[in-house]
Amino acid sequence: MKQTFLDIYQKNITRRGADKLLEWMEGTDFFTAPASTRFHAAYEGGLLQHSVNVYNVLVAKHYDPSADDLESFTIVSLLHDLCKAGYYTVSYRNAKNANGEWEKVPYYAVDDQFPYGHGEKSVYLIERFMRLKTEEAVAIRWHMGGFDDSAKAGSFAIANAYEKYPLAVKLHLSDLEATYLHENRGE
Predict the structure, then answer these.
(1) Which of 20, 70, 17, 78 shows the shortest CA–CA distance to 47?
(2) Are 54 and 172 in contact (CB under 8 A)?
């Protein structure tokens, strides 16, 4: 799966700084981290799998080569959850095994060393190396839709974002489909 990610990234993203971003990613756990603690792709390499799944859905369902920029679609899909690099840790808890005996079993826990939000943290991390277009930054920022803690009732920010930037809607829909229809849900 890592080679698939690298092939897509290196073929479709040619923007200045993309190579430095990828180099930084190689120094993190991005390629081995889970996508979540229990909701989807909650296994080693789950974040990598999820990122490729979102890319596949976004391009297959929403990409129009005559109107859309493949580089933008690739950036937002492969990097929307960059914030999860260095976000999880392995911890242990007691659980009964098949014989009914207690044993320590590993599980993923959140260890957020840089609590900067979800989408906005991904945007921040990407822009340390590579400039994003406004529509890309907005799409990544709002990819969680109403699941984002800051999408509070009464705020029109997310509606305005989706109205102005269709890529944001397309990324959100692709993230939902990859998460709930294509990935192994945890316990």
Answers:
(1) 78
(2) no
Three-class secondary structure assignment of 31-81 = CCCCCCCCCCCCCCCHHHHHHHHHHHHHHHHHCCCCCCCHHHHHHHHHHCC
The two three-digit tokens of residue 69, written as one number: 């920029």
Reported as a single tens digit per residue, the pLDDT across 147-156 is 766 655 556 7
Q: CB neighbours (10 Å) of residue 33?
A: 24
> Do residues 161 and 40 lie in contact, with contact meaning Cβ atoms separated by under 8 Å?
no
Location of structure tokens 């971003």: 21
Distance CA 110, CA 159 (A): 29
Q: How far apart are CA 45 and CA 117, in angstroms?
A: 22
Q: Phi and psi (nearest 5°) for 76? A: -70, -35
Beta bridge mates, 106? 92
Task: Measure the CA–CA gap between 105 and 38, rounded to whole angstroms.
Answer: 14
10-residue mean pLDDT series, the chain (187 residues): 96 98 96 88 90 97 96 98 91 91 89 87 97 97 76 71 94 93 64
Alpha-carbon distance values, 27 to 31, 60, 86 (Å):
10, 30, 10
How far is 150 from 147, CA to CA, in rounded Å?
A: 9
Q: How far apart are CA 35 and CA 105, in angstroms?
A: 19
